[in-house]
Amino acid sequence: MNLDQYLPVLLFILIGIAVGIVPLALGYILGPNRPDAAKNSPYECGFDAFEDARMKFDVRYYLVAILFILFDLEIAFLFPWAVALQEVGMTGFVAVVIFLAILVVGFAYEWKKGALDWE
Description:
By secondary structure, the chain is mostly helical. It has helices spanning 7-30, 37-40, 60-76, 78-83, 85-113. It has a domain at 55-119: Methane Monooxygenase Hydroxylase, Chain G, domain 1 (Up-down Bundle), CATH 1.20.58.1610. The termini are far apart.
């Protein structure tokens, strides 16, 4: 069995592992390490981790996140339309204007309801 054919593959794997591990090791060795109780505490969703786990929390945080994802994904539908604008013609243009009008109405509704206010 000739192992010379596997040398490039082995070098590729070793270099890949080194590229992944060397920066992590350098950051661990050279980086500052000043732990305290606040840094070592668990952190989730922007809420204080030192209160009661059964406390009531504000749903607006999640609402804004869901609205961001919703509007972001809807805007992502505009990219294929922009690329194919010449092929879709006036019918495609009118369809996208209607789509954008629905987006603007939804955004205005959410803004009027106060879903985007942080207080």
